[in-house]
Amino acid sequence: MNKVWVFLVICCVASCNPFVSKEEKTRQLVNQELLHMNWNAIDNYPLFYTCDETASKEEQKACFEKELVSHFSNTLKEFEFTITPEVDSTVYVVFVIDTIGKIKVLDIEKDIKIIEQMPEFDGVIIQSLKSLPEIDPALKKGIPVTTKYRIPIVLHSN
Questions:
Q1: Taking a C-beta distance cutoff of 8 angstroms, is the pair 132, 71 a contact?
Q2: Rounded mean pLDDT, 144-151
Q3: pLDDT, tens digit, for every residue of 10-36?
Q4: Which of 17, 56, 92, 131 could be a cystine partner for 109, CB 3.0 to 4.6 Å?
Q5: Residue 140: how many other CB atoms lie within 10 Å
């Protein structure tokens, strides 16, 4: 009978660590998960109301990019820019979409010719981004996250 009690006590002690709190165990599990998480990838892309949230990640990305490019094209058609024939340039717009779906322009990368010939270009781009329809933020593990984008705008003179 004593052997049974000794065996049960050993099993109980060996099966769990009574000196580690549940909070500490949770912290250890979270730290392990964080070490293996790819911080450069998101689970769901930001979505416009026209995009399907149940679509695959690739379809969400395609819908997001299509809506963004379409909006930029429509906005830029409203303005008439005059540039000299030697200007064939790519402008890069760097922006973030925060956890509540708000857009903030970080930078507009362009060469000096664009600055000289179209000083109002930055304002038009910023206004275009601010007039985008409502966007649901990107998700990582079901939690809204801030995402950064760098999109090219190709300018050709005609």
A1: yes
A2: 91
A3: 666 555 555 666 777 777 777 777 666
A4: 92
A5: 17
Position 115, amino acid? I
Better-predicted residue by pLDDT, 39 or 45:
45
Question: What is the token pair recorded at 12?
Answer: 């109980």
| 120 φ, ψ (degrees, to nearest 5) | -85, 0
Task: Report pLDDT for 115.
Answer: 78
- Interatomic CA distance for residues 62 and 132, integer angstroms: 17
Q: Which two tokens stand for residue 153?
A: 């705008």
Q: What are phi and psi of 46, to 5 degrees?
A: -60, 145
Rounded to the nearest 10°, the torsion over CA 8, 10, 13, 16 is: -80
Q: Which residues contact 96 (CB under 8 A, 6 or more apart)?
A: 103, 104, 106, 146, 147, 148, 149
Report which of residues 34 and 151 the model is more confident about. Answer: 151
Segment holding 140, helix H or strand E: strand 138-140
